[in-house]
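User: Predict the complex with S-adenosylmethionine.
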Amino acid sequence: MARPSEYDRFADIYQVWTDTAASTPANLSFYVDAYVSEPGPVVELGVGDGRIAVAAAIRGRSVVGVDLSVAMLDQCRLRAQAAGVLDQLTLLNADFRDFQLDQPAALIALPYHSLGHLVALDDKRRAMAQVFSQLRPGGRFIFDDFLMTPLLIDHMRQVQLRAEYQLANGADALLWVTSLVDEASHSIKVVTWEDELDSQGALVQRRYRRLSLSWLEPSQARALLTDAGFVIESCFGDFAGTPFADASAHEQIWLARRPT
Ligand SMILES: C[S@@+](CC[C@H](N)C(=O)[O-])C[C@H]1O[C@@H](n2cnc3c(N)ncnc32)[C@H](O)[C@@H]1O
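Assistant: Here is the predicted structure with S-adenosylmethionine placed in the model:
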């Protein structure tokens, strides 16, 4: 039976969410390039609505997409169907911590801070061990995480108007976001609320959605990877592939290999 996921209630706004995020164009092209340059099999953990996987499929790469949320996988199927590449995707409803592939992967990617949805360090450790076990010898693991700074924490804590759009019923909607950030536990509760407005601009209904996230310090990410048996090839500080440096990095993007 499918496990419940916070994303089941987030799936209908996920495309607005990613279309209005500053970081998505860069992470999209980075991961698509990585997928198409591997001979395969390529696996995306937390495939979501197929934002990356479908773009890679359009460029000819078959992708196995793993996701806990049935609603996100439904969105992914719709996106792939609309792009005419559904036959290039294999979708698995499974958890990062115990997914099982039919054949060992050449590349497993976990994009867009998604490891952070496993808030407990032990769960992240389990996911890393599982990724390691599902890669073929010499196979690659790529994931990114927030690089948390006081500036980013301040930004996340602000209330922001994220998007203005129309709902399926034609009504105007505003999507707001803020986050509760707990520096001690490295955890983030993203809180969004979508206001549906009538033709006079009056509030008809407000709908809240929440996501649980967390982050690793770079030293923790390094330790988790090496403890799981990975050899670290590179760490980038942005999606242009700039080597990680504390003072200039915006992200932490880890490229690791299972030894042969
Ligand atoms: C931030 S979205 C990323 C989606 C897509 N990779 C992208 O970059 O747009 C995170 C995805 O991970 C999935 N997810 C969260 N926790 C998960 C878990 N424990 N196992 C499998 N999927 C999970 C969510 O359902 C969601 O689709």
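Helices lie at 14-19, 24-36, 51-58, 70-83, 121-134, 150-157, 218-228.
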